[in-house]
TrEMBL record:
Protein name per its UniProtKB record: Protein kinase, putative
SMART domains in alphabetical order: ARM, S_TKc
Keywords: ATP-binding, Kinase, Nucleotide-binding, Transferase
Keyword Kinase on entry: yes
Organism: Hondaea fermentalgiana
PROSITE patterns: PROTEIN_KINASE_DOM, PROTEIN_KINASE_ST
Pfam families cross-referenced by the UniProt entry: ARM_LRRK2, Pkinase
Keyword Chaperone: no
Domain Protein kinase: 1-193
GO molecular function terms listed in the Swiss-Prot or TrEMBL record: ATP binding; protein serine/threonine kinase activity
PANTHER family cross-referenced by the UniProt entry: MITOGEN-ACTIVATED PROTEIN KINASE KINASE KINASE 20 (PTHR44329:SF288), SERINE/THREONINE-PROTEIN KINASE TNNI3K-RELATED (PTHR44329)
């Protein structure tokens, strides 16, 4: 016959007096899960326990057996009992719900749920709530009837979802409390998540090898992502690790290209809402950065189109990110993450671009981040990437280039991070969009001398197809309309040589050839420097490297 060795009350006392006997988070949840299982059985039989408390919960030493006991309310009141031990004719006041503390008492299964919430609190704190803060039973009853509930100590290691379940269980209105079956299901779901979380490292490393289809590894990865995202709103102690795991998995899928199965799963499981909650309530800059990085990679890809729109227009994450920019200006990684978040939400969404720049003023925050962290390659890289997208809108070009003067920060980033292929390519992309404004075009070439930075980037990264493509694209825009720009770029800086060199170096790249031809076409509009460019294009066309462009 199965035998219990002690009560939960005994176990909690032992844990308080001997730290080596303290339960782990998983063990605490396992005990609570089995208590919920017992309540589900009782309530299914229409039985109300009416005195659920640690002293009436029996356990085996290995925690493999948990039983509910003392259905007869037989505990006798003793003169020296604490409030937690005091038993009325119908229960123990410290665990009694508001509706049974006043006449006429209304005993339903929901009263047991209230008691379960108090037991949950006690499992994590090792003592009865209000034990040392109330003067009498009537004082306790007054507090409970006035909706006062125990506070979860900041020093207690407890997962957020457990705290929220406690709060639901001790809701003042009985109808707002969950059923025992719902509580049990919650614990079972979280148990599965805990087991999946232990596979994080192995699955993250295996994830890129699962491209061939939904084999065993990929199925496990999908289940892991689903569990991790569900866990986001419920984990405190492991929140950082959970966010890191989500980012690692989704970033690897993003880098591998060709699939966004896991990102789609993350989005469908509610990662936008979960990270919004974190961003709005956390004051830890490291956690905030991890949340924004996870969201940045989740929103990238075809599956994220509607979610990107919703993130800004429905969930107002733009305002939250602005607050993050302002509150944690000195935190390098968080500033980079905030810029990184802007990139996907402004991809192919003109309305999002308008909201962020024209209504929320994100340009000022990006400029401040770039000025505050000039040495940070990460900040400069993601800032330039964000500006690339934000400058697609005509009015945004004017605001970013002239009102906020972000063109100066882009040029400064190119000078400071010449060695960085990523910074150079994204900066050139941002310049290409910003230069599609007459005044910006003049400022960049004639005042900031950006042509020199582009030439330097092309020389430094001659073998980089992406840098050559984006540099040629920037020159295409910068030489679009202004005759003086064409003269400076073509004759003084001789960018034509760099463009031709790029065409020779990357003959098989359609993107490089297209952007180069566009740049040469605009430069050739200047009669003085055009002949050199046209002769070179004609020569390359003659040997069949690319079609003759139309100028």
């Amino acid at each position: 016959m199965d035998k219990c060795d002690m009560s939960l009350d005994d176990l909690l006392y032992e844990s308080e007096t001997d730290a080596t006997l303290a339960l782990t988070l998983d063990e605490k949840e396992a005990v609570l899960r089995e208590i919920a299982r017992g309540l589900e059985y009782l309530h299914g039989k229409l039985v109300v326990h009416r005195d659920l408390k640690p002293a009436n919960i029996l356990l085996s030493r290995d925690l493999g057996l948990v039983k509910l006991a003392d259905f007869g309310l037989a505990t006798q009141l003793e003169a020296n009992s604490s409030i937690a031990d005091t038993v009325s004719s119908v229960g123990t006041p410290a665990y009694m719900a508001p509706e049974v503390l006043q006449a006429p008492a209304r005993w339903t299964t929901r009263a047991d749920i209230y008691a379960f919430g108090i037991v949950m609190w006690e499992v994590y704190h090792g003592k009865s709530p209000f034990e040392h803060s109330v003067r009498s039973i009537s004082d306790l009853e007054t507090r409970v009837l006035n909706r006062e509930r125990p506070l979860v100590s900041e020093n207690v290691d407890v997962r957020l979802w457990v705290v929220r379940l406690m709060e639901k269980c001790w809701a003042h209105d009985p109808q707002e409390r969950p059923r025992a079956s719902e509580i049990l299901q919650t614990f079972q779901d979280r148990k599965n998540v805990r087991q999946s979380t232990r596979l994080i490292r192995g699955l993250v490393s295996a994830c890129p090898r699962s491209r061939g289809g939904r084999n065993g590894v990929e199925d496990a990865s999908i289940e892991l992502v689903q569990g991790l995202v569900r866990d986001l709103s419920d984990v405190t102690g492991n929140l950082a690790r959970t966010l890191d795991a989500i980012r690692n998995i989704l970033e690897q899928e993003y880098d591998a290209k060709g699939s966004d199965v896991l990102r789609a799963q993350a989005l469908s499981c509610g990662i936008v809402v979960s990270t919004k909650r974190i961003v709005e309530h956390s004051t830890d800059p490291d956690i905030l950065a991890k949340a924004l990085w996870a969201l940045r990679f989740a929103l990238t890809g075809e599956s994220g189109t509607s979610f990107r729109v919703a993130a800004i227009q429905e969930h107002d994450l733009g305002s939250s990110v602005i607050e993050v920019f302002q509150a944690f200006r000195d935190h390098e990684d968080l500033q980079a993450a905030a810029c990184g978040f802007v990139i996907p939400v402004t991809f192919d969404s003109d309305r999002n671009e308008v909201i962020l720049v024209q209504e929320l003023g994100v340009g000022k925050e990006i400029a401040a981040a770039m000025r505050k962290h000039p040495e940070s390659e990460s900040v400069q890289n993601y800032a330039c990437g964000a500006l690339w997208n934000l400058a697609a809108n005509a009015r945004n070009k004017e605001i970013l280039g002239q009102d906020v003067k972000l063109v100066k920060e882009i040029v400064a980033a190119m000078r400071k991070h010449l060695e960085s292929e990523s910074v150079q390519s994204k900066a050139c992309s941002a310049l290409a969009n910003l230069a599609a404004n007459d005044r910006n075009e003049v400022i960049l070439v004639q005042e900031l001398k950006v042509g020199r930075e582009i030439v330097a980037a092309m020389r430094k990264h001659s073998g980089s197809e992406i840098v050559q493509e984006k540099a040629c694209g920037a020159l295409w825009s910068l030489a679009a309309k202004n005759a003086r720009n064409q003269e400076i770029l073509g004759q003084e800086l001789k960018v034509g040589k760099g463009i031709v060199a790029a065409m020779r170096k990357h003959p098989g790249s359609e993107a490089v050839q297209k952007q180069a031809c566009g740049a040469l076409g605009n430069l050739a509009c200047n009669s003085t420097g055009g002949s050199l460019h046209l002769r070179e294009v004609a020569r390359l066309a003659a040997v069949g490297l690319f079609p003759v462009p139309y100028f």
